[in-house]
Design a protein that fits this description.
Elements (H helix, E strand, L loop, with lengths): L4 H25 L6 H12 L2 H11 L3 H26 L1 H21 L9 H29 L8 H41 L49 E6 L5 E4 H6 L3 E8 L10 E10 H8 L7 E6 L4 E5 H5 L5 E6 L2 E2 L9 E3 L13 E7 L22 E6 L5 E3 L1 E10 L5 E8 L5 E2 L1 E2 L9 E10 L2 E11 L22 E7 L1
Parallel strand pairs: 1-10, 12-19
Antiparallel strand pairs: 1-2, 3-4, 4-7, 5-6, 5-10, 7-8, 7-9, 11-13, 13-17, 14-15, 14-18, 16-17, 18-19
Helix pairs in contact: 1-4, 1-6, 1-7, 2-5, 4-5, 5-6, 6-7
The structure holds the ligand Nc1nc2c(c(=O)[nH]1)N[C@H]1C(S)=C(S)[C@@H](COP(=O)(O)O)O[C@H]1N2 and molybdenum atom (MO).
Length: 513
């Protein structure tokens, strides 16, 4: 006698459900926008022809998404059951089925705009969990079948049956726990996302890009970086999700009066806004760990003034909700530059990834010494009395940005027509300003590029230069900038560690007739 098919179906469904909840939990923990199932659902919605979608909305009203998800789960249950049964005789066929389903999930994820690799982690973990769970269940089922099938009077199927049933129960329980935990992980973020969307930030404006700023060349990074394209750097595996109602900032240390602020207290202060370019010390020459945005917030100097900084202090130690820290020169946040506790970026409340509800921005300093995301604690102190996250690991204590420039067009390795070529890119020296940019073709004399305008000295500037009578063959173009103090960007090549890369960005390209 063989065990009934039903057990194989049930094993398939239970193992599949565990895979789905595992991917859901991982998505929730990693703060990934959508679990693979939701990604597939969104993909289906996008693919649904208009009339069908309208019919669904008319019929199911606001429950249309829930109906879709339920339908998908039912279909998946059938597929899981079927794959479970396949696993009985043809394990390879079951594995192929898993891979196909995984591919559907992967396509749905890729179809969503701007997909970081991390989005695939839940999918892969879900698939592996599912396969492992099914393999273990199949193993018990097979043992049970063998015993049942043997004619041996002594062999008692109780042991293998009990082993199977217990494993099935364990996998089912794990799926249930995974589902509940995934729900908790996701709803924490969803609640904060919702608070974020419902915020009204009075005084936050959203101006257009100033006139004269773009130099109008294709292939150059936009002067204002859209938030979804803004680089992301942090050490948080799980990014803090802080409801603005729960946010507190403590300012203490070498101050006359310790201050504890909540979000409303902060917003009651006068708002400051500006265009500021932020970049990372880990940005290689020619790299893209840099972005420019319109930031809105409250000046740090105002709050430090209220607290009353005591003589002898030369630093503030900022700490984030997840325990990351950075030491910032006190001078840089009190010398009149627009160093702020930012609440908004490009006219909308910060995204969670960029430090919601409050992060620091200090023009002229690398992010690792200044731009604390999810900031909750500021201690006025002395550099000699403190250490911080990156300085502990050998990075420089002071992190002023370095005068730098980048070529965006042409691209490395690009093939361009002979004759006239427009080169373009960006240059930056926040809080000093860029006075000029020069390029050199094939090691020849430096020639001036034309600069776009800038609203202040804290942003990057776009540049363009036209090369004429470009001959056929391989070429090399390099760029350097000159700041408003007259300093010329150094060509000496140095590594990003300990205080930022230097060297001229150089591009090789080919001109063809
Ligand atoms: N809490 C926290 N804040 C942080 C970091 C971090 O790891 N944790 N990284 C810093 C670094 S190195 C940079 S370059 C900027 C990047 O900010 P962004 O991710 O908003 O672009 O954040 C800074 N603030
Ligand atoms: Mo950074």
């Amino acid at each position: 006698m063989k065990t009934s098919r039903g057990w194989w179906w049930l094993s398939g469904i239970v193992a599949g459900t565990l895979g789905v909840t595992a991917s859901y939990l991982v998505a929730g923990l990693l703060r990934i926008r959508e679990s693979p199932v939701v990604a597939v659902a969104e993909g289906l919605i996008a693919l649904t022809p208009g009339p069908v979608a309208r019919w669904a909305i008319d019929t199911f009203g606001t429950a249309d998404k829930a109906v879709l998800l339920l339908g998908m789960f039912l279909i998946m249950a059938v597929v899981f059951a079927w794959l479970g049964q396949l696993a009985r005789d043809r394990w390879w066929a079951a594995v192929t089925g898993f891979c196909l389903l995984g591919a559907v999930g992967a396509v749905a994820i890729i179809a969503a705009p701007g997909t970081p690799v991390a989005e695939f982690v839940p999918l892969v973990i879900g698939l592996i969990t599912w396969l492992l769970a099914l393999a273990v269940l199949a193993e018990w089922l097979r043992r049970w079948e063998l015993v049942e099938a043997s004619d041996d009077e002594d062999s008692d199927p109780t042991h293998s049956r009990r082993g199977f049933v217990l494993t099935l129960a364990a996998v089912g329980a794990a799926a249930a726990v995974g589902g509940v935990l995934g729900r908790v992980a996701e709803s924490g973020r969803r609640a904060v996302e919702e608070s974020r969307r419902l915020l009204r930030l009075d005084g936050v404006t959203k101006p257009p890009v100033p006139e004269g700023v773009p130099v109008g060349v294709d292939g150059i990074a936009p002067w204002q970086t859209p938030v979804p394209d803004f680089y992301l750097i942090d050490t948080a595996i799980i990014q803090p999700t802080i409801d603005p109602r729960d946010w507190r900032l403590r300012i203490h240390g070498m101050v006359d009066r310790e201050i504890v602020l909540d979000y409303d207290d902060l917003l009651r202060r006068e708002m400051t806004e500006d265009w500021i370019t932020l970049n990372c010390v880990s940005n290689e020459v020619g790299g893209d760990l840099i972005g420019n945005a319109w930031w809105s917030g409250v000046r740090l100097a105002v709050l430090l003034g209220e607290a009353g900084v005591q003589p002898g202090a030369d630093a503030i130690l900022q700490t984030s909700d997840d325990g990351w820290s950075c030491g910032t020169p006190l001078a840089a946040v009190t010398d009149g530059r627009n160093a702020m506790l930012a609440v908004a970026m490009n006219g909308a409340a910060l995204e969670i990834e960029h430090g919601f509800p409050v992060r620091t921005i200090v023009p002229g300093l690398f992010g690792y010494v200044s731009a604390c995301k999810w900031v909750v604690d500021i201690e006025v102190t002395r550099f000699e009395d403190t250490t911080a996250y990156w300085t502990d690991k050998g990075w420089a204590e002071l992190g002023p940005v370095k005068l730098s420039s980048r070529i965006d067009a042409p691209r490395a390795g690009e093939s361009v027509p002979v004759g006239t070529l427009v080169c373009a890119g960006v240059a930056w020296a926040q809080h000093t300003g860029v006075a000029g940019v020069e390029i050199s073709l094939d090691g020849g004399a430096w020639r001036d590029a034309t600069l776009g305008e800038v609203p202040n000295n804290d942003t990057w500037v776009q540049w363009r230069a036209t090369l004429t009578s470009l001959e056929a063959g391989d070429h090399e173009v390099r760029v350097r900038a000159i700041d408003r103090d007259g300093k010329v960007q150094t060509g000496v090549v140095s590594d990003v560690k300990p205080d930022g890369a230097t060297g001229w960005h150089t591009i090789e390209f080919t001109a063809t007739a």
